[in-house]
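U., I forgot to send this yesterday:
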Amino acid sequence: MGYPDTFEGFMIDSQKNWSDFTKKEFKPKPFGDYDVDIKIEACGVCGSDVHTITGGWGECSLPLCVGHEIVGSAIKVGPKVKSVKTGDRVGVGAQIWACLECKICKSDNENYCPHQVDTYNAPYPDGTIAQGGYASHVRAHEYFTFPIPENIETSLAAPMLCAGLTTYSPLVRAGTGPGKKVAILGIGGLGHFGLLWAKALGAEVYAISHSPSKREDAFKLGAKEFIDTNKKDWAKEWAFTFDFILNTADMTHTFNLTEYMSTLAINGTFHNVGLPDKPLPELMAQDFAPNGAKIGGSHIGSRPEALAMLKLASEHNVKSWVETIDISEKGCKEAVERVKENDVHYRFTLVNYDKAFGSRK
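Result:
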């Protein structure tokens, strides 16, 4: 049938064959008064995509088109849309809908709305399964459609919409800024954003990693010090130091958490945004007592935070570290397989959508 009745996407049919993509048509949700249709021009490849298609986070709807770091051009807007006009360059992250009526939504916490719809692998109220950005188009509510500043290149903007926001939101909510000592644990797709944002926000920034090969990258990304966790008793010299540790690693189940928590200042927080497939290590209640430590987590960020993040990136010339791959069955396969093996420096963005889907005008 074709647009606007159907979209095309690179989809998996099986979690067993999780990296085998086939281009297929799928039917989007009915177009609503507040909806925006976006002709996709780029989409970041997120660790969430890999956790979903491999079954690490459980069974998924099939066939499935993943991708939730989307940038493109608005080609159709609903009659009640006020914040987007046709032709605008816009982005969509990992959330595509919420009720916008509950007390959570009305407190600018719509990313925690109990009725939220993720950008892919989630049902809308009418039962339609949301499909993601490895596709020709995406249909999004205007509230979850963000204008992209002119001076941020499309392929660099895309990863900010999930990985960027996932790290920006907790840093800002923790009061990251001048006078704060913030450590970013893990230097990868999420962690490199953590370092960039913490530096741009004015904090004193430290990188914690088990990969000494990433030392120079850490300094280029804004770290004042690089802490190598391979060294014996590495944590002792950093006891009672950090106001906030942003844990971006997805191997936390292998960590000696009490060691990491010992580096927190009094009432400091160990905050998780990396989401492993396996449970966290067991802790005793008394492990929190020596410094009044806290442990927490978060889910992406709100629209006001997304807009503030993009403004910060624009004003401070913050640039994602990105490798680009042309979208295709082969390109999608290469991207997700390399993300699974951590063979990326530090994000992938799928590009050249016109080659795969045509001009779509």
